[in-house]
TrEMBL record:
The keyword Membrane applies. Keywords: Cell membrane, Membrane, Transmembrane, Transmembrane helix, Transport. GO terms for biological process: transmembrane transport. The keyword Transmembrane applies. This is ABC transporter permease.
């Protein structure tokens, strides 16, 4: 009952969309352009072994490495900018400028630099996921309450105490907000990298199916990518609730 109350409207909208898609695709009857959802599910079942045993692990590896690098480097840079005004003035404008460059235009350059290895796809993923993690964490570190800061200072707190007892807990919700954006974007980054140049992966498989004019084959890995993004988002949300139990008490 709780699930129906919370997600009933969204589930109903998705169901209506799938029904409309099924009926519209049957009327158009151009499977190589617009396959029906049942055709996509059938193709997904037929190709389950190469998709789930070969291409899905390759994509998950790219996502995992990209997210790990973004978290480590993004949080590190956010902390550095929060304690050093010069670093903030140097790197913050560069991060903003980097978001104006279309990643799809840079992906072929990374293929030239790194070849068809995993690192060309990892770099694309990092570029997409680095920004939300860094900016949200930095905003959280800078948004700590002045009243709490002054209170801790009057109690003899050191800079180390202020950082670990005030800034880190205060910035945690911001970090998780950025991470929830980053995990969904990481799927897009990995798919873009694989689409441009790869030898395995769900994005690569979708592009290969497109060259064969197999509409259902193009959509099948996209369904898996969408499911991966949803599972990653839900996982981060559950981790946030478990880690930040004090927010419920507030």
């Amino acid at each position: 009952m709780i699930f129906i109350k919370k997600y009933g409207a969204s589930a109903s909208l998705v169901l209506l969309f799938i029904i409309a898609w099924e009926l519209g695709a049957r009327i158009v009857n151009l499977g190589f352009i617009l396959p029906t959802p049942t055709d996509v599910l059938r193709k997904l079942w037929e190709l389950k072994e190469p998709l789930f045993l070969e291409h899905l692990p390759a994509t998950l590896l790219i996502i995992g490495i990209g997210l790990m690098l973004s978290i480590v480097c993004g949080v590190g840079l956010a902390v550095w900018m929060s304690v050093n005004r010069t670093v903030e003035k140097t790197f913050y404008p560069l991060m903003i400028s980097s978001q104006t460059i279309p990643i799809i235009a840079l992906a072929p350059i990374f293929v030239l630099w790194f070849g068809y290895s995993i690192w060309s796809k990892v770099v694309v993923t990092v570029l997409i996921t680095f920004f939300p993690i860094t900016v949200n964490t930095y905003d959280g570190l800078k948004a700590t309450s002045k009243e709490y800061r002054e209170l801790l200072l009057t109690m003899g707190a050191s800079k180390k105490d202020l950082f670990f007892k005030l800034q880190v807990p205060g910035s945690a919700p911001h970090f998780f907000s950025g991470l929830k954006v980053a995990v969904t974007m990481s799927v897009i980054g990995a798919a873009i990298g694989e689409w441009i140049g790869a030898q395995a992966g769900l994005g690569y498989f979708s592009r290969r199916m497109m060259t064969q004019f197999d509409g259902a084959g193009v959509f099948a890995p996209i369904i898996i990518l969408s499911a991966v993004g949803i599972l990653l988002f839900v996982s981060v949300s559950l981790l946030e609730k478990r880690t930040l139990k004090w927010r419920k008490s507030e």
